[in-house]
Amino acid sequence: MLAALPVAGFSTGPRDRLRLARVPADPFTLGVASGDPSPDGAVIWTRLAPNPLADDGFGGMPAQPVDVDWEVAADERFSRVEQRGTITATPESAHSVHVELAGLRPAADYFYRFRAAGYLSTAGRTRTAPDPGSLTPMTMCVASCSNYEQGWFTAYRRLAEEHPDLVVHLGDYHYEYAGRDGGVRRHVGPETATLANYRQRYAQYKTDSDLQAAHAAAPWLVVFDDHELANNWAGDVPDTPQPAFGVRRAAALRAYYENMPLRRSAMPTGAGMQLYRRVPWGDLATFHMLDTRQYRTDQACGDRTRTDCVERRDPSATMTGAEQERWLLNGFQQSRARWDVLGQQVFFSQMDLTPGPARTYNPDAWDGYTANRDRIVAGIVNSPVRNAVMLTGDIHSHWAAEVHQRFADPASPVVATELVTTSISSGGDGSDVAADTAAVLSENPHIRYFSGRRGYVRARVTAGEIRADFRIVPVVSRPGGQVHTGATFGIPDRAPVLHSL
């Protein structure tokens, strides 16, 4: 491939030609991304990988540092460049780049790109958050669960076409399973267990043009769920016994950081990383991004859906861990936002999965940690929180629910709402409401909507209302599916109920 033409403002001297000789092909095969916006900046990201599927996880890069130039402009043509600089990508970080921008204007669109070894990346759009005090409306899209083998990432493309101000991704960005025949596409490599495996798997997903479009469209807020490491892991406990799980966990978290637009504060140390954080969007919304995997106790009931086992009500069972719970409750006490939004992974509302008098629950969701959930609900009730909204992924289907103060008492006050996004592709094409699902819904009157199709949630957030559209892509078994709205709900200010629109 020929080198890109020189770009105004980038160095093209002898040192640049030397770098060009060390990189064998275009290194920007994984696209660009941005995330964690602030009023004066955001993180911009890329990773150099001329051979992205290389088995060693290094993406075909030489074992040498490479300088990467970056620039940020106020327009798509980069005629008004406002900032530029150079950062060194190293083999120790798989030649990933995280630039933390500062000094930009609040509530403004910016465009960014990178250059290395004579090659120019595609451009991405990011947006800074508004200043404190602002109630400027915003549009966010919420996504989760993209399995490369089970479908095309068409929903990411349609999400990009919404031109959101922010994307909230709630986990299962990739799946760890070994490549298997018979799917829509095929994973490269074995089940991910080593750092090289995880780096290769991220690279395969990031070569998808629909995913690249979604990253380039807006800044992302990201948290992981289980498949970024292994199915249904809980703290230090794997779902199935395996040697050296701590080593595998450390590799997975390191690869996650390398491949996501996260700040340095999230850089892992060993087998842990600081992922939970608060991201304000003026005074309109505060996003409390939760980590429901690193600190949780092992799932109750043997981690199998079953009748109402007593373990799930154990006061010591925790999804968040004690420190994160204190952090969250303290955030409620300090709230000044119109909307407090919890970006988290698994179904928060109670859900009885069996029609009739018998009751069964999913112990991997909050139903397996009821005391922890009750304390969070009480924290909302006994705080200045004005409007609480849970954003949820994981379950591969759309749901809308109302959160009661006491789940066992459907007449108790509704204190929050829950918007559950379906998967991008996990589960294949899916289906509309089946008879067995309809029967389950009749057991759960606080649940107002269900769809088993693929897609995402689009929400318009204003001072007076959140308007949530459940966006549906009926077909992912072949590319090019269109999107439509399956249902729309309004959540009024100071009235945490779902109004069908």
TrEMBL record:
Transmembrane segments annotated in the record for this chain: none
Domain PhoD-like phosphatase metallophosphatase: 140-470
Family matches, as InterPro entries: Metallo-depent_PP-like, PhoD-like_MPP, PhoD-like_sf, PhoD_N, Phospholipid_Metab_Enz
CDD domains reported in the protein's UniProt record: MPP_PhoD (cd07389)
Span of domain Phospholipase D N-terminal: 30-128
Lineage: superkingdom: Bacteria
Protein name as annotated: Alkaline phosphatase D family protein
